[in-house]
Amino acid sequence: MRKLKFKNYKLSEKLFILFIHIFLLLFGVICIFPFFNVLARSLSPEFYIQQGQVWLWPIRLTVNAYVKIFQAMGIVSGFKNSTFVAIVGTAINLIMSFLIAYPLSRKRLPLRKTFIFIVVFTMLFPTGIIPMYLLVKKLGLMNSLWALIWPYAITTFNMIIIKNYFQTIPESLEESAFIDGAGELTILFKIFVPLSKPVISAIGLFYLIFNWNIFMPAVFFITHPSKYTIQVVLRDILTQHMLEDQLPFDQASLMSLAGPEAIQAAVTILAMIPILIIYPFIQKYFTRGMMIGSVKG
Amino acid sequence: MQGPASRFSSFQKQFWKNRFLFFMALSILAWYAIFRYIPYYWNLIAFKDYQYSMGFAKSPWVGFENFKALFQDPFFLRVLRNTLVISGLKIAIGFPFPIILAIFLNEVFKSAFKKTIQTITFVPFFISWVIYASILFSVLSPSVGMLNVLISRLGGEPIYFLASEKWFRPILVISDITKQSGYFTVIYMAALAGVDEEIFEAAICDGANLFQRIWHITIPGIAPVITILFILRLGQLLTVGFEQVYILYSPMVYDVGDVIETFNYRQGILGGRFSYTTALGLFKSSIGFVLVIASNWVLKKLTGHGLW
Q: Would you say residue B53 lies in a domain?
């Protein structure tokens, strides 16, 4: 701990510290306030939202907007599709990343330098989205959820972090496993993966969030509403909404309990919940995983 | 000394011993070949007049025609200008902001306050732009947005922020800061955690004041990370972020807010101009590539830190 106490600071330093606290507090409030506003909206009747009365606390608490969501088929299937992409996608992400990170981390791999160059080059020179679109079309993946999984099966940056961590595992470990008759796959999944838990947890969470949030490919590759992910469903709600903003007030929707504003807020909250559930784990693993992974081997 | 023949056979032996490892790598490189290198190859349609019905092979070569068309297109020039201005503003304001946040957080005594601020500012990074845009609408909407309700209460005229040419760019820059800076702050804080506490203590003993400590210890402590993130950021100069602009913009603000990525989407996917937009994408990727290589080279000469 730092030995200097606040009372020992000079006046100019004290004023600066005070400024720092006010600045941070203000920024924190600006960041968090809209979230509470949306939460309060999702739990309030439409009328009060339209009147501009809902701030940080719901007025006349109601879960009507949430009930309405589950009656809307589009939204339910959006959640189903997103869940599929998140779970299946992340499993594929991790397995494929292991299968390439492990060989690349071993000095005994023939042509190792060439392979690393091939892989790293894809980070420096991004793939154009139009050629990717044509490829997805050619592979017959248009309007399939697999179009959101296969083209993004490996994020090279994440894979390199796993590889760097694997590199810190001494070769003597695999040598003794070889003597016991273990194959490469056994060594990878029984020794390397369990030894790298913190890094893999961090990367796994990153993949999970990437897959849940995936949006641009969903806009490009999926046009059929039954295959929409929740992010695209929310886009539709928002864009219809923007048009409504320019229309005169519609009395009927104003008086009904759950109107467009409340429903938009409720979908927003629900789409956020998976992120909020895993957020504590991100905080736990992120810093640690990142620090270990960035050590160059 | 080994002769060339025995060296060759030792490579063979080495290869045979590690053949499973080699094929494991090769099987995943097949994925790279299909999903990264085939699209690289298909970038060549930028030099063709590609028709989807004719396919890649039968479409005729046209040389640099698509690039010429690109740089003579007033819409592209507008889009390029918007991209550079918005991205420039994001770098000028958005890049230093998390550095300042990290320096400030480092001077906070109460760890509960520090943790709370870090937690609050870190969350939005993990939320998709669509969700974040929905939250922004609830603040900015002209009829029911909280900011506009406040403005009306104070007697002002409501502002339609997202349809205003004056406000659209500031909204992009500010929302980028409130959504993304927490993440980079955490990276800088992690780098600062690696700075030895004893250096701070020694500086205090030597009578260095708060500002001297920030200037001589905190900033040099995160300088290597700043350099690396800056190189990566510069490589993204022509990337404004498709998702943010796409979800927030509308034809009313195309003049100030339409950027390369959204233009590419409308022309390529909605308009079917594949050769034209591939030329645009190739231009964008090449600039990014050159910027990363060049800025890495320059910064390594200047500071000694770089990506490789």
A: no
B94 and B38 within one domain:
no
User: Are B210 and A16 a contacting pair, CB within 8 Å?
Assistant: yes
| DSSP-assigned beta bridge partners for residue B61 | B48
- 3-class SS of residue B61: strand
ipTM attached to this prediction: 0.89
Contacts of B53 in chain A (CB under 8 A): none
Is B133 a member of any domain?
yes
Side-chain-side CA neighbours of residue B47 (13 Å): 8
Reply yes or no on whether the pLDDT at B11 is more than 90.
Answer: no
Give residue B147's domain range: 65-303
Nearest-CB residue to B42 (from A49, A134, A153)? A134
Q: Six-digit token pair at B30?
A: 């097949």
**What are the boundaries of each domain within chain A?**
70-297
Q: Which of B104, B129, B134 sits opposite A264 (nearest CB)?
A: B134
pLDDT class of B241 with cuts at 50, 70, 90? very high
Of A181-190, B25-34, B110-119, B205-214, the least confident: B205-214
Query: B308 with B296: CB under 8 angstroms?
Result: yes
Residue A289, pLDDT score: 62
Q: How many residues does chain B have?
A: 308
Q: Would B289 be classed as within a structural domain?
A: yes
Instruction: Work out the pLDDT band at A88, boundaries 50, 70, 90.
Output: very high
* CATH value at residue B253: 1.10.3720.10
Determine the residue among B9, B20, B21, B270 to mutate to test chain A binding: the one whose Cβ has the most chain A Cβ atoms within 10 Å. B21
| CA A67/CA B281 separation, integer angstroms | 44
Same domain, B145 and B288: yes
Residues B187 and B38 in one domain: no
A212 pLDDT above the threshold of 50:
yes
Q: What is the DSSP string of A133-148?
A: HHHHHHTT-TTSGGGG
What is the CATH number that goes with domain A70-297?
1.10.3720.10
Q: Are B130 and B243 in contact (CB under 8 A)?
A: yes
B147 and B196 part of one domain: yes
pLDDT beyond 80 at A249: no
Q: Which residues pair with B48 in a beta bridge?
A: B61
Let me know whether B43 and B173 are in one domain.
Answer: no
Give the Cα separation of A125 and A250 in Å (integer): 50
Interface A–B counts its CB contacts (< 8 A) at 254
Name which of A20, A264, A291 is nearest B190 (Cβ-Cβ).
Answer: A291
Contacts of B47 (CB under 8 A, 6+ apart): B61, B62, B63, B64, B66, B279
CA nearest to A39 within chain B? B135
**Cα B87–chain centre separation:** 9
Same domain, B35 and B109: no
Residue B179, in any domain of the structure: yes
Question: Is B14 in the A-facing interface, judged by CB distances under 8 Å?
Answer: yes
Q: What is the tally of structural domains in chain B?
A: 2
> With an 8 Å Cβ cutoff, are B211 and A272 in contact?
no
Closest-CA residue in chain A for B136?
A: A34
Separation in Å, CA B91 to CA A257, B136, B178: 44, 21, 14
Query: Is the Cβ pair B285, A125 closer than 8 Å?
Result: yes
